[in-house]
């Protein structure tokens, strides 16, 4: 037994049903070898990667129509990999990344559940440069501006891995960190456009959630 419980969800995105293996609830925790602890992932944070969040759904819907062409795409903080699965189904050149010790195995399982080849995956620790990851044309992520100190860390990741004409698409549920993040990216030459979005059926306008697109 892995020490945690899972469930299988059907998530409908862009008119297609995706089978997703997720943790059964937010109370799940198993870190017997202290891998997560050494990465700075607390017991309270451990289960967050294993849920399908509203921000992830909004990003996945956006990935149904985003231009892929020959662009090299990176999902940052992929969690269960829903957006990466959407892009893999479309035939995109997608690489998923996260730092949670179980993200790789859950992504591989979810690829198989949907009859897809495994999405290429890289461990990406934001504070540690990844010497071989390279640069990307499109970088995407959902609800990764979770804490204020993530702003500088994430801006550093983008500086290292976005090419000169990259596009960045993030979804943010309105945690209050998107404005200072936008200022940090402006210093790297990015302009932003944002669309206020409904993240839950109970949301009422003006929506707090945002679909943020940065371009330089």
What does this 3D model show about the protein?
There is one protein chain. This protein has 216 residues and is of the alpha/beta class. The chain has one domain (50-215): Vaccinia Virus protein VP39 (Rossmann fold). Helix content is 25%, strand content 28%. It contains 6 helices and 9 strands. Strands 5-4-3-6-7-9-8 form a 7-stranded mixed sheet, sandwiched between helices. A hairpin with a 2-residue loop joins β1 and β2. The radius of gyration is 16 Å and the shape is globular. The model has no long low-confidence stretch (mean pLDDT 95).
Name given to the CATH architecture: 3-Layer(aba) Sandwich
DSSP summary, beta strand count: 9
Radius of gyration equals: 16 Å
Mean pLDDT: 95
Low-confidence stretches: none
Span between termini: 48 Å
CATH domain fold name: Rossmann fold
By CATH's scheme, which homologous superfamily applies? Vaccinia Virus protein VP39
CATH C-level:
Alpha Beta
Strand order of the largest sheet: 5-4-3-6-7-9-8
User: What would you call the structural class?
Assistant: alpha/beta
**Strand residues, percent:** 25-35%
Tally of structural domains: 1
The general outline is globular
Number of helices: 6
The H-and-E topology, N to C, reads as: EEHHEHEHEEHEHEE
Q: What is the share of helical residues?
A: 25-40%
Biggest sheet character: 7 strands, mixed
Organism: Dokdonella immobilis
InterPro entries: Methyltransf_16, SAM-dependent_MTases_sf
Keywords: Methyltransferase, Transferase
Protein name: Lysine methyltransferase
């Amino acid at each position: 037994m892995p020490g945690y419980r899972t469930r299988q969800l059907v998530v409908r995105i862009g008119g297609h049903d995706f089978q997703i293996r997720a943790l059964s609830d937010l109370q799940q925790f198993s870190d017997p070898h202290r891998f997560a602890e050494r990465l700075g992932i607390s017991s309270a944070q451990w289960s967050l990667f294993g849920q399908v969040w509203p921000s992830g759904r909004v990003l996945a819907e956006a990935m149904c129509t985003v231009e892929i062409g020959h662009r090299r795409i990176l999902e940052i903080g992929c969690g269960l990999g829903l957006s990466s699965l959407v892009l893999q189904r479309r035939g995109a050149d997608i690489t998923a990344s996260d730092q949670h010790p179980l993200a790789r195995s859950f992504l591989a399982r979810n690829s198989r559940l949907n009859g897809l080849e495994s999405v290429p995956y890289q461990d990406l620790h934001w504070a540690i440069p990844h010497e071989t990851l390279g640069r990307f044309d499109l970088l995407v992520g959902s609800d990764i501006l979770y804490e204020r100190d993530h702003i500088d860390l994430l801006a550093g990741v983008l500086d290292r891995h976005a090419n000169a004409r990259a596009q960045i698409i993030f979804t943010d549920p309105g945690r209050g960190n998107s404005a200072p993040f936008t200022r940090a990216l402006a210093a790297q030459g990015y302009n932003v456009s944002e669309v206020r979005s409904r993240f839950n059926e109970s949301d009422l306008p003006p929506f707090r959630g945002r679909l943020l697109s940065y371009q330089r």
